[in-house]
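Quick entry between incubations.
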Amino acid sequence: MKVKKNVALSDSGFLFNPSSGESYSVNPIGQEIIKMLNEESSEEEIIATLLEKYNVERDTLEKDIRDFFGMLELYGVVKPEEA
Amino acid sequence: MAKLLYERPLITPLNTGMTNKFGTRTEYRPMTHIDHVAVKDLLQEFGSPLFVFSERQIRNNYQSAKRAFETRYPKVQFAWSYKTNYLDAICNIFHQKGSWGEVVSGFEYKKALKNGVPGDKILFNGPDKTNEDLKMAIENNSPIHIDHLDELYRLTEMARELNKKPRVAIRVNMDTGIYPMWDRFGFNYENGQAWDAVNKILSNDVLDLIGLHCHIGTFMLAPSAYGIAASKMSELALSIKRQHGKVIEYIDMGGGFASKNTLKGAYLIGADTVPEISEFAEAITSAILNAGFDKDELPYLYLETGRALVDDAGFLLGSVISNKRLSDGRRATILDFGVNNLFTSFWYDHKVSPAQEFGMHTENSVLYGPLCMNIDVVRENVSLPPLNAGDQLVVHHVGAYNFTQSMQFITLRPAVVLIDMKDETHLVRVREDNDSVQRYEQVPEYLKPFKL
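Done. Structure below.
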């Protein structure tokens, strides 16, 4: 999963998607995930990093990350997965 | 190194041009304690979900309502509306403060008697009073508020049989300038039904007409409507004095003062729009004082205020069972309490707070109850921090009508806890179990055996 190149994310969590004109608010953990996606980390790498850092069960984290990816796709922030 | 507190990743669209110029409210301020008792401890000790009442808030509410009326009018008597909340512990707080009882059925009447309210201090309202109920009320000398002519005839007949003179009032409905007009209780003022009922009572010497009662509506947001009602009631009382020489002892203005809840579809929150109780007091007392009563014939003012005195003293605590994403991308949160415990969520947008600390990021969510029913929606859209399974919530302003209307639909009713003036907790109703429901059921013998 790749974040679209023209998507801008500020340090305060303000995200602007020029292709749709929409802006979004992203919470700190969400920002970390987007940054890791920009660095082309895999889903498994992201999960491993966050598990190390946060007090959370793997099941919960996996479920929440899948859900977050779903929302990124819905809002057109990431490039559609190639078939 | 200690791990950081986890919060679900969130991305929330920023909208402009919301329908409300103040924007939507976000409920990220946690409510971790009720009267210095931790929500977490309450749920751990008594289970989830749980109704909690604050005795301090009830006493404060009563005190300010009493002050609002007594500083404006010399003869005021409150009667606790049992249907609003008839948990004995709650009723007794009001009785300790000097409130009489106001009941609308034989069941409530017996409850009030058992709580120790003297019969002559129980006001008996309601359209359905059986002969047994009426007999009990006559023998206890309770003021009986007559709702319809059939009741009037029945009561007259019973009084003759028992050779007693029951103390009665008639219930009066009227146009107070509000819509819809409540004309289902009692006799209409404008079309002469009320006057007709008065004449029927006073033309024979069987019933003792001591009062006039009205209940103009519920969740009333216009104090002026009470002013109009109080003027009409006073006019009726003065006419009775003029034409029959009978002094009316009391005018009962019923209840209906709004609580600080927010009605669905309201532009502003209830806390900003609902009038203070002193505004209702001002409207009612000015109307009676200006009506022209002789100084020594000023009637007592009875009030059956329920909702406004208890709503904000009640909380419903519960837990998140799960959260999910709906097909259209909306977040849904499933709670362990639903409309079975929170009947008023059909017409209020109840304030819901998380019971633990979160960051400042929120997302819109629909709150569903645990019932396997489509109607089970606690809030259609509320902005809350990202809640996880097991997180706890507090629903505010649930003290009126929710417990009395809660039911064992799909799940059993939760326990009820009272936090007293010293912040000690008391279990005032135990959590129900299967026996609470099944002990009243009987299965015919032939239906007992089956093989699967």
